[in-house]
Amino acid sequence: MLVVIYYMVLYIAEAFIAWQYFSSLFYPQYSRKTEGILLFAGYGILLMIGLAEIGWLNTAVFIITNFVIVFSLYHVKWYSAFFHALVIFIVMALSELIVIGINSQVLVNFWATHTHNVNLILSAMFSKLIYFLVLQFIVHFLKDEKEEPALPDRNLLLLNLIPFFSTIIFLTLYTISLTVELPVLMELMVSVSSVLLLILNLLIFWIYDRNQKTSREYMKLQIQLQKESDTAGYYQLLIRQDESQKILIHDIRKHLQSISDLNEQGEPEKIAAYIDRIVHSSDLQGSVQVCDNVSLNALLCRYIQLCRERNIDFRADVRSGLLAGVTYHDLTALFSNLLDNALEASSGMPGSYIELSVTRQENASLTVVSLINSCPDNPFSGKTGRLVSSKRDSLRHGYGIRSIERVVKAYHGEMQMYYEEERMEFHTVITLLL
């Protein structure tokens, strides 16, 4: 029973260390909960096979299991998954060899008699600490440099002092256990302390990594919100320009009267300058009436112009009186992100088009937003079924969809997205309770 408990502690520590290593380097294909369950299940299989104590079998199964874990749980090529499976095996083997070199006799006695003492537990925990530290250094050099740390480098340096101090504590406890004959209770306390010290190091780095990811997520969301705010400000400017245009057209009769007066006074140069100023006024730029919602109309006019520049046929059918209950910022976030994605997917495709319709189901008090756009390839991942973005800007990857989902949730709605292979069309259907 003690042997099983001993192995369970070791394999749980190894699973946690491997999870920290893999999740720091690769993007997961599943949720963090599913990722953790499958990874610990794989190490549970390793535990059962490890109890047989067949060296070559343990080695082969360890490499194969980690290869399967990396390849199936993360977005990574098979050769990269195999490489990292070999890396963690080599690092683990080297960490154990270091400890064997320090106290080989204790480990020899363990394998021969299966006796457990404080020296053995300290040695095992010490080897896992070395294993963890080496993998952390490897992560530091292999991790994508585009991800900026959430904390300054000096804080990271201070954090790395914790395992260094822990190593000194391990060596101190180990020296005491070798030179002093400890009572049974004291041996138990020292053994439990060594296990807790390793767990403490793992938790510190795990919490630090979680804080980093949370900080990056918050930063990305702030950037997305700032983008939406800027977009909203831009369309408010278009609305003001449209209002100025209407005022100018309303006053065109006065301008004509002024020109007539200058003509009677025989001032051709002043007439020419006056006409030139009116013709080149920004208030006389073209205006398109797509719907009676002033805010949405300004936004759609912008995308109509972008579609013309990219030879994309844009069709819009927005029924009268709809979306009045949606705030301006939510309206901008919803439609700008929807149309941005549609433009990106349709650009460069011959005969591409975007169809937008906003209708209402009176019997259910629902407003239905339907967007159909040309899309040459299926944007859903074959493995995970999730949308795969082709944007080069990884900082904003996925946050447009999150903004859309935020607005849909705010108005108690639902969203459905699907792809039609035959027609090469991407469909987005949103229902809002309005």
Query: Which range best describes the helical content: under 10%, 10-25%, 25-40%, 40-55%, 55-70% or over 70%?
Result: 55-70%
Low-confidence stretches: 105-116, 144-152, 392-397
User: Could you tell me the radius of gyration in angstroms?
Assistant: 33 Å
Order of helices and strands: HHHHHHHHHHHEHEEHEE
Strand content: 5-15%
- Sequence of strands across the biggest β-sheet: 1-2-3-5-4
Mind summarizing the main beta sheet?
Answer: 5 strands, mixed
Look at the helices and sheets and give the structural class: alpha+beta
Q: How many strand elements?
A: 5
Verbal overview:
By secondary structure, the chain is of the alpha+beta class. The protein is 66% helix and 9% strand. It has 13 helices and 5 strands. It has helices spanning 2-25, 32-50, 55-73, 78-102, 104-113, 118-142, 153-179, 184-250, 252-264, 268-279, 294-309, 328-346, 399-410, and strands spanning 313-318, 353-361, 366-374, 414-420, 425-433. The protein has a 5-stranded mixed β-sheet, with helices on one face. A hairpin with a 4-residue loop joins strand 4 and strand 5. Helix 4 runs antiparallel to helix 6. The longest helix has 67 residues, at 184-250. The chain starts with a helix and ends with a strand. The relative contact order is 0.06. The model is unreliable at 105-116, 144-152 and 392-397 (pLDDT under 50).
